[in-house]
Design brief:
Strand order of the largest sheet: 1-2-6-5
Number of strands: 8
Radius of gyration: 23 Å
Number of helices: 7
Largest sheet: 4 strands, mixed
Shape: extended
Amino acid sequence: MEVAAREDWHEDKVQPLDRLHKAPHMNARKRHDSTHSIGFAAAIARAQNACRHSTEPAMATLARIIVLVLATLFASHAEARSTNVTDADYPRALEAEGPVAVAWTDPEQFTEIRYSRNRFEAVRGDWVRDLAGYLRTTSAAALADGERLDVVITDIDRAGDYEPAMHRLADVRVVRDLYPPSIALRFTLHDAGGQVLAEGERRLTDLGFLSSSVGIPLYTDALRHEKRLLERWVRNELRAPRR
């Protein structure tokens, strides 16, 4: 067993547990976030009240500065809490840049979220956009001059899963060979004249991902297993000799 980080725990030979849909600590975490939000709002209200009732210019100016600082902290806190891949305003594509365009379907339907044992943790973070960005960068380096690539990611199932029955490790992603990574995508590759060179749908997976990832430079990256799937696809699909 190896614990690489709080959210990424490796253990190879433990039997799977019965699937659950929600971790018992979910409501407690939501109450924690809510308490922070209420505290920020109350502090801003007190500072604003001080601005209105202060008779000394210096004190009024100081109170206004405090209001601005608290408002900035409140906005940052709210933004951090809302970083979930299933948010209504979460993008569905990377901004246009270079010869590779990457989009994705609704993350709500991804296997990673639909069948997670801890949906609350599974949706957290910006991992869909991170993987899309990595795919764009890696693919762009493999294209010939003038070529364009359009990719749509249709499914992601990250390596590992959550196991709430382990109590204190309920919010830790446990990575075992029982939970291999998988990514589905469809793509179209165009040459410089706009003609289609290749297109299709692919399901990328690696059942031996734990043994194949030992000693690689990305070892501390929480998305290293998924990135290796993308690297392999780019190498086999884009860098291989084409007819």
